[in-house]
Amino acid sequence: MASTQRVAMGEGVTWTVVGEDFRVAEPVEQYLEYLRSRDCLPNTLKSYARGLALWWTFLERRAQSWDAIGVTELGTFVGQLRRGSVAEDVAPLHDGTKAADATVASRARAVMGFYRYHAARGVEVAGRLYETVKARPGSYLPFLEHVARRTGRRSSVVKIRVRAKPVPVLLPDQMSAIREAEATWDAAGAVWSGELRYRLLWTLLEETGLRLGEALGLRHRDWKTGTGTTAQVEVVHREDHPHGLRAKSGHRRVFVGSALDRLYGDWVWALCEAGADVELDDWDDAYIFCNLHRGRRFAPLRAESVYKHLAARKQQVPVLPPDMTPHWYRHTHATALLLSGVPMHVVSRRLGHADIQTTINTYAHVTEDAELRACADWQRITQAWGSRHES
């Protein structure tokens, strides 16, 4: 059975795939190295490695060479992905837990990307897994669409339809509950009691829509406090985070409110009281979210630690959804902005989406539902209609 293998490198962590003989799957490694050269994020590499490890397992189970497959094998693989039986010697006859459409699509996308890469390198079988198609006219036309209509596009012969689902959001009382569970202000002593670090983190995610990796990668120089102007946080693309975290999009500024800015100031004060200003060689270069109780003091906080902490909080705060993740804050932030009338292109820029179409595909249902609800008051609509005819 093939598996993914974590590889620690000088500049961070990456992933590869090893076969059941514990040797690196060379064709897969060639593709993953190509992705590394394109500066793909570590999490993207990890996801692709998982999908390709399943594909390699599928091939090993069938004793089949990777460059001697066709559409039939790909279809069988997708079916096993849905059933979760790729690594099983015997296919189950009962209906078990099925993989989500998005998971199946993600794994299949890794495999098709692998063959598209090898098609460009001249592997004959890989070229037969793609076809040239011409797009139909539609409302959304990307840049240089007129060129694509003449030449056509290379499209995978294996397509997986992902059913669109509303994004999960948090309610105001839920976000308030976890903030209060983390830390509270003691007016008598004029001090915070509890985990101020996590109160700042949850508030930052709630009010900015940052990805968790972007938040954990912030350094003190990135937080521009409001001194007569609106405070802002700068999201900067860097590649030197000890845990491999990087901003998914390029550089952007996210303006924040005065309450959040003051909370950051309180956290800076708490760090100084803990001795950070003495122990750290370069304050501006230090990470905002850092270790205090475990591990090396003031070293950057791991994403795994955040997930572990959140799991414990969900046990303590009953109103929190059991399947809540930090990414829910991002969906909540975008949803709240759209419902308050902020234009889609502004939300897209604030979230750091590379293409506004990503924002539309993810959150179009938010404005659509709001517009459809406006049609619910039929009496008001018909009264306005009648008044126009009378005039």
From TrEMBL:
The keyword DNA-binding applies. Keywords: DNA integration, DNA recombination, DNA-binding. One of its GO terms (molecular function) is DNA binding. Residues 22-119 form the Core-binding (CB) domain. It holds the Pfam family Phage_int_SAM_1. One of its GO terms (biological process) is DNA integration. SUPFAM superfamilies: DNA breaking-rejoining enzymes. The keyword Electron transport does not apply. Residues 170-377 form the Tyr recombinase domain. Belongs to the 'phage' integrase family. This is Transposase. It comes from Streptomyces colonosanans.
